[in-house]
């Protein structure tokens, strides 16, 4: 089931800022520009700002200059910089300005924003797209098309902001907005992204130390190339991601290790039946990645007064593996359309 | 550095047989046919034979009918069937007929062939190419172009056979022939292929058991998709491969687990410097996969009387990560050209 095209009408006249123009921020910037959003950007690196200007992008020399008068600001810097940038931007913009980020872990920043009274303005986000490249020169306006883009509304007070941002992301990026709690995002992302990075590093690292290193590289075909591709991600980015979701990553890594131990145990015992059962169990999850069927869903809530119900619906939708396909506000009613797995209730 | 095209002159008039026409055997068959080799094939499954005939391939109803009068036979059945088929084919062909296989582990079959006096005729082989699909309908004549194809000469008595097969594989399949000992192949393949399959299954299996299974699948982007692709391989094929190289796979898995434990330890301790050092160490092996530079090499040996030196050269070449680009026999001399990593001696 394909998603219907979102209307581009939502973004006319919107003023946006992108702070940090590496691979992800640069791709956000290019896509906003292509969608005729009036977008200004900033990057701490003067050389990157120069490169951006050469490409005809509107790069300015300070955070404050970039966000002045904006209705939406994308925080796209490295994870450790986000809390500081968030406070600085909140200070420099008015309450109507929507703030979001694109970091790969969400719990810490969500707690920080709540503690600083920003739950109504800040919607933590995470577009599930990327590449093993880095930098503005690798940015790609089409990076997010069809990708899942997690948004984490921080309580019912943040729903107005969430709805505005959802419409913008659908219409500009053609992404599948997945509403989730920050904690559930971090648990799911640990398995969907962070642990795979650890496995890829462990495999590549073991090869690096192997006596037959060069022979292994010569023999490396699909399974090794695929299994280590993300080991080419810049180390800084990988370390930030892992450290930013440490407990969850270690928990989920434990579950993967448990499965690996079962596989190794069956192999050590030469127990073909057990080995087959485990490989088939694993194959089922992989098959679901491409074969899972989704059904459409529609829910309505009053714009005011049903915030907790609306919030519960949204967080439940993401936890069940669903995503939004539309978000309209009309005559006092917010109408969500969504796709949910057939297995969900 | 690209490999020079091999001459097609070597294969004119050659008669070949392919036994077992699944994904790999079928691809071998299609490529031999396209190269105008006179090729006959057999598969134990009548339906597969029917499908092959419909595609204009020469499928016959018995092993003996397929191999009659052949100069080279490719054994492409499942690993557990290979010893039996090898004996049957050796019986049905004369000493001039070269026998090889395409199985993903080599040590067991090499020992078996030696024990049955077939070291001069049988050259264990392993083309490092594949797909997560299966069956003749997924076969692809171009599957081996540019791939590494391991051949394991079983002692100096097998060198004449090795040279003939090397020329055939270079000229027909445009593959990079990697000469290796069967044991070194199994050690290298464990890291290059078998352990990656285990990791992919463990990751997919842990997701299958996760509370947030559907949310993980929704969030799954590049790292998860890549890291689990081979988990879609038919379970039977994966189990055969792992059981056929059990000790090596468990050894190498131990090394990967050690690296993973170091990564997890650094993460648990919040030791950013240690985490960065490990991720960079791993990144180096991954970078070498695409950036490694090779230099050309040329070696000559008398066709007769220097077998041990020639064998030692060949096995050393593969262990160092090199591959052959040419093998000519002229005026009593065998001339090998090769590419070797700059790091090798």
From TrEMBL, chains A, B:
Keyword Oxidoreductase: yes
Molecular functions (GO terms): NAD+ binding; prephenate dehydrogenase (NAD+) activity; prephenate dehydrogenase (NADP+) activity
Keyword line: Oxidoreductase
A Pfam match: PDH_N
GO BP annotations, alphabetical order: tyrosine biosynthetic process
Domain Prephenate/arogenate dehydrogenase stretches: 14-297
Family annotation (Gene3D superfamilies): 6-phosphogluconate dehydrogenase C-terminal like domain (1.10.3660.10), NAD(P)-binding Rossmann-like Domain (3.40.50.720)
Keyword Lipid metabolism: no
Similarity comment: family membership: Belongs to the prephenate/arogenate dehydrogenase family.
PANTHER family per the UniProt record, alphabetical: PREPHENATE DEHYDROGENASE, PREPHENATE DEHYDROGENASE [NADP(+)]
Protein name: Prephenate dehydrogenase
Top-level taxonomy: Bacteria, Bacillati, Actinomycetota, Actinomycetes, Micromonosporales
């Amino acid at each position: 089931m394909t998603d219907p095209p979102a209307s581009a009408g939502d973004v006319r006249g919107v003023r946006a800022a992108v702070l940090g123009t590496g691979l992800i921020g640069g791709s956000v910037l290019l896509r906003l520009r292509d969608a005729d959003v009036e977008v200004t950007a900033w990057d701490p690196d003067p050389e990157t700002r120069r490169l951006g200007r050469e490409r005809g992008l509107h790069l300015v020399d300070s955070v404050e200059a970039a966000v002045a008068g904006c209705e939406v600001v994308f925080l796209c810097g490295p994870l450790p910089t986000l809390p500081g940038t968030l406070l600085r931007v909140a200070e420099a913009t008015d309450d109507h300005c929507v703030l979001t980020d694109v970091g790969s872990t969400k719990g810490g920043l969500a707690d920080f924003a709540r503690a600083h009274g920003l739950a109504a303005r800040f919607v933590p986000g995470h577009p599930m797209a990327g590449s093993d490249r880095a930098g503005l020169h690798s940015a790609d306006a089409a990076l997010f098309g069809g990708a899942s883009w997690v948004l984490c509304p921080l309580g019912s007070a943040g729903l107005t902001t969430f709805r505005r941002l959802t419409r913008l992301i659908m219409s500009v990026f053609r992404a599948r907005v997945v509403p989730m709690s920050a904690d559930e995002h971090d648990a799911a992302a640990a398995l969907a992204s962070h642990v795979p990075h650890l496995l890829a590093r462990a495999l590549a690292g073991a090869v690096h130390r192997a006596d037959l290193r060069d022979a292994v590289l010569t023999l490396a075909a699909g399974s090794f190339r695929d299994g280590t591709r993300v080991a080419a991600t810049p180390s800084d980015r990988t370390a930030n991601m892992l450290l930013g979701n440490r407990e969850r990553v270690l928990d989920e890594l434990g579950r993967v290790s448990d499965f690996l131990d079962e596989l190794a145990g069956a192999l050590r015992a030469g127990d073909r039946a057990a080995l087959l059962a485990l490989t088939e169990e694993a194959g089922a999850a992989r098959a679901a990645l491409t074969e899972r069927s989704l059904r459409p869903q529609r829910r309505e809530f009053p714009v005011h007064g049903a915030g907790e119900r609306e919030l519960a619906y949204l967080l439940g939708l993401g936890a069940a593996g669903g995503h939004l396909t539309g978000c309209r506000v009309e005559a006092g009613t917010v109408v969500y359309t969504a796709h949910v797995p057939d297995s969900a209730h």
